[in-house]
UniProtKB/TrEMBL annotation:
Protein name (database record): Phytoene synthase
InterPro entries (UniProt xref): Isoprenoid_synthase_dom_sf, Squ/phyt_synthse, Squalene/phytoene_synthase_CS, Trans_IPPS_bact-type, Trans_IPPS_HH
Pfam families in UniProt: SQS_PSY
Organism lineage string: Bacteria, Pseudomonadati, Verrucomicrobiota, Spartobacteria, Chthoniobacterales
A molecular function GO annotation: squalene synthase [NAD(P)H] activity
PANTHER family xrefs: BIFUNCTIONAL LYCOPENE CYCLASE/PHYTOENE SYNTHASE
């Protein structure tokens, strides 16, 4: 599997992240596409309905080994990923953190508190951001804190958007402590009970996400704004999505929220103009 295959994985994912890549030069775009294809593949392993838990664990372990050295029967994308790791002086551990995140889905389907959930969000989103900024290039070390905060913002937005979808595979990412806090039970959740309790619970989630977006914006160093334009496109698209879900009172049981191509393109244009 070469870069063409990585590009195909990215296109087929229909991800907002893929949209943000248009802001990058050809070489960076190729390398971030390879990295993103890795992220998609390991996530797809963890989510696969065809594989057993043991098979998923075995394939993820294979990926972990392939990050450090060539392995017999390794995934075709492994060598391009190792080239990206070497080129940007990344460590295999940086990508292993992402694997550890998707592995959590093999054994954990509930989180008692947000602090428990934060580790999951860090691994599957902030760790992706920390690798991405190495490919984008930055000057101020504070950019790492920016990447961590933005990752938490994006992943908590994903959790809000995907409540209904996650229920279908018996996953509840809303912290159990917060369900109890708002007097809303897991039985209510599976019954798709959309009432004032649910809206209050979800508004609490949304406000936390907004706080992470605000924190990320404050942490982005001025001298790295141009380099982080792809990340800022992501922030703009996902924050707009979050606001739309809020305005619609969180109809996440019955709707799948997405921005259309024009709405996304407007965010791309706005961020490109800001960074000129």
């Amino acid at each position: 599997m070469g870069n063409a295959d990585a590009q195909q994985i990215t296109r087929e994912s229909k991800s907002n992240l893929a949209l943000a890549f248009v802001s990058l030069g050809a070489e960076q775009r190729r390398d971030i596409t390879t990295f993103y294809a890795f992220c998609r593949l390991v996530d797809d392993i963890a989510d696969s309905p065809e594989l057993s838990i043991a098979q998923k664990a075995e394939r993820l372990t294979g990926w972990r080994r392939a990050l450090s050295a060539e392995q017999s029967g390794e995934p075709p994308l492994a060598d391009p990923v190792r080239q990206v790791v070497a080129k940007y002086r990344l460590t295999p551990e940086m990508l292993e953190e992402i694997i550890a995140g998707v592995e959590m889905d093999l054994s954990i389907s509930r989180y008692a508190t947000f602090e428990d959930l934060r580790l999951y969000c860090y691994r599957v989103a902030s760790a992706v951001g920390l690798v991405s900024i190495e490919i984008f290039g930055y000057r101020n070390p504070q950019c790492r804190d920016y990447a961590i905060a933005l990752g938490l913002a994006l992943q908590t937005t994903n959790i809000i958007r995907d409540v209904g979808k996650d229920l279908r595979v018996d996953r509840v990412y809303l912290p159990q402590e917060e369900l109890e806090q708002f007097g809303y039970s897991e039985a209510d959740l599976f019954a798709h009970t959309h009432d004032d309790r649910f809206v209050a619970l979800m508004e609490h989630q949304a406000q936390r996400s907004h706080a992470f977006y605000t924190k990320a914006a404050a942490l982005l160093p001025r001298e790295d704004r141009r380099a982080m334009v792809a990340a800022e496109i992501m922030a703009a698209v996902y924050r707009d999505l979050l606001r739309r879900i809020q305005r619609d009172r969180f109809r996440v049981f019955e709707k799948e929220y997405r921005l259309n191509r024009l709405q996304k393109a407007l965010h791309v244009g706005a961020q490109l103009l800001r960074c000129r």
